[in-house]
Amino acid sequence: MLTRLHISNYALIDELEIKFDNGLTIITGETGAGKSIILGALSLILGERAEARSVRNPEKKVVVEASFDISAYALEGFFAENEIDFWEEECIVRREISATGRSRAFVNDTPVTISVLKDLTSRLVDIHSQHSNMLLSKPAFQLSVLDSIADNKEVVSKYNVGYVCYKKLQEQLLEKQNEYEKSRAEEDYIRFQLNQFADLKLTENEDIELENLQKKLSNVSEIKQNLWQISSTLNGEENSILEQLKVVAQRIQSTERNLSEIEGMGERVQSALVELKDIAQSVSYVDDQLVDDPRQLEEVEMRLNSIYELERKHNAASVNELLAIQHKFENQLSLIDNSENQIAEIEAKLKIQKAKVKELALTLSETRKKAAQLFVADLQPLAQTLGMRNLAFDIKFTATDYTANGADAVGFLFAFNKNQTLLPVKDTASGGEISRLMLCIKSIIARSMSLPTIIFDEVDTGVSGDVANKIGEMMGEICKRIQVLAITHLPQVAAHAHHHLMVYKADDENSTLTHVKALNEEEHVLEIARMLSGKDVNQAAIENAKSLIGINK
């Protein structure tokens, strides 16, 4: 519920702090005092459009901040999904507007988009006025009313899960069928390409190995000449490195017996001698194995040309890229070969899921139709007590394809005069009638549905006497379950208040400002008396006010 509202630098408000409690809070004040300004500030919290002209002092920004007790709402998932800090007991929503009209929104000090702000606050506050009740004409709202009366929460949840699964299977089937048709159209092309890959029988990194072999075969004579020179230098018949190292080794070994400074060098030269001897033997072996083979070179070059040609055709830079392309073709062919089985499996799953959705949709339809009968029976007498004596009401059901809301299209049909054709509410009701209808509907569904804080903005316009008193009684009944705020000009409605806020204007040296005062019991009586008699409050008006309040307690 709403616990606090802070407004600064907005229209006629310089700085205002209002605290709220549960039950029924009545807001009164003379015309032009600023009640609509407070409601306008609150609408900013609900994500409504911000206008620069509402900024009172252009050197400062507008700040509207509201605190909500959210302990009764399961909102942890919403906060986690939108990466907002979750405070278990309290939620603080703030909107800031600069003189240029730039707007920023925060939830628990976390910046949020306007869409996220709207999504959250729509779960916390529900404003109803004469001119903002089009919700009544929306099919989704009408279904939610019936589902709340039918206590369909669990069935609706199961249906939503089943419907999402059903739609996903439909999407999978369509995607698989499209893939299959596309692949079938390319099957001959894919098979032809794979035959070319199959003819080459490529292996990983083959192009690198072949290019290295090509270099070797193309330069056999030069390589063998170099190897012979290396071998001769290391281990030739005359003055070879190995022969010289043997002499060096002998002289070091002879000298190190008498010269400790070179002790151990002989072993090191012997090790070098062994290593160079091994190198000489290896070079000689490689030289013997290396053969000038023009035919092998020709085969290597032909193989490389075939690979290069395939790379150019598929815009590939290496054999490994060609192998990846080959793998892609093989997958496409496998898809073609297996798609019919996969499609059949999805179709079987879809058939089973459709049966589950159908069963749940049928359950919803049956319970909604039963709830509709109860709703019609409850709403008509309730509306009649609010002055709509000739109200006729019915609910039309039309079967539809499966949607996120089931397989029902519903229409609330009304007639407010005798012998009048039943029509959708938007085609037949006045603003005042819609407001009172919504009051009746909220009164009915509040018995079974967890609603947010409800704000009624002069829904009692155009009524008086007993009807006005009935509206007050109805609000008093609703507030037993949820918080209700009501702006009213009628003393009969105000007399039902658990808490009374009076809006008034006062002048200072430079301007006129809107203020709000929480009335005590005596002030509550005086305000009711003023509403009864006008500006001149006499003792008779006070006694009348006390009587009116006493009757409603």
Classify the secondary structure makeup into a structural class: alpha/beta
Give the end-to-end Cα distance, rounded to a whole number of Å. Answer: 24 Å
Low-confidence stretches: none
Mean pLDDT: 87
Kindly state the percentage of residues in helix: 40-55%
Count of discrete alpha- or pi-helical segments spanning 4 or more residues: 17
Number of strands: 15
Largest sheet: 6 strands, antiparallel
Report strand %. 15-25%
- Report the C-alpha radius of gyration, rounded: 44 Å
Which overall shape is indicated by the principal axes computed on the Cα atoms? elongated
Q: How do the strands of the widest beta sheet line up side by side? A: 2-1-4-5-6-7
What does this structure look like?
This protein is α/β, with parallel strands linked by helices and 553 residues long. It contains 17 helices and 15 strands. It has a six-stranded antiparallel β-sheet, with helices on one face. A six-stranded mixed β-sheet has the order 8-12-13-3-14-15. Strand 10 (406-415) and strand 11 form a beta hairpin. Helix 4 (139-149) packs across helix 12, helix 6 runs antiparallel to helix 12 (319-384) and helix 9 (241-256) runs antiparallel to helix 10 (265-289). The longest helix has 66 residues, at 319-384.
What is the fold's blueprint, element by element?
Blueprint: E1 2-10, E2 13-19, E3 24-28, H1 35-45, E4 62-69, H2 76-81, E5 90-97, E6 103-107, E7 110-112, H3 114-121, E8 125-129, H4 139-149, H5 153-185, H6 187-200, H7 206-218, H8 220-235, H9 241-256, H10 265-289, H11 294-313, H12 319-384, E9 392-403, E10 406-415, E11 423-424, H13 431-445, E12 453-457, H14 465-478, E13 484-487, H15 491-494, E14 499-507, E15 512-518, H16 521-533, H17 539-551
Parallel strand pairs: 3-13, 3-14, 8-12, 12-13
Antiparallel strand pairs: 1-2, 1-4, 4-5, 5-6, 6-7, 9-10, 10-11, 14-15
